[in-house]
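Changelog-adjacent note: as of this version, every example in the card shows the full chain rather than a window. The one below runs 160 residues end to end.
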Amino acid sequence: MIDYSVSKKINPRNKEEDPKYYANPQVSESVSLEKFARHISDHNSKYNRADVSAVLTQSVDCLREMLLEGKKIQLGDLGSFSIGLNSKGALTAEMFNPDIHIKKIHVNWTPGESFTDLMKDVTWNRVANRKAQNALLKAVTNGDTTVNLEDEEEDGEADV
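Full-length structure tokens:
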């Protein structure tokens, strides 16, 4: 189940347009490598948490190494990983210098089959946004019986 909230936002490309409401995912938990490895090992795996953790850690190291060698790594249903570049232009091909013109290296992930259509398996749970949750917690902590959500609007954005 994916928790989400809804925010009213101004379109940054057209600030004259009326604001609209958009969905925002609300992460319920950040799962560490350790916890993820334990989760995998608890799914009827013959490998214990330490083994799974070691394989995942080594996978990250090897994935990074192979990406820096310019390879595309295909990991079945997980998908494929490759390098992408952000660069500024040079006036001529001869003037192009990677140390000057390439500004950033990023990793491209192309989802595999298991990740291409998550919509068919998702269930949604609408929750209060983080600002509203924090306002409620503050009110409860202070012993207040009301919560003012009007003050939560900033920079043309209002969460509901």
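Structural remarks: Helices lie at 33-41, 49-68, 98-101, 113-116, 130-142.
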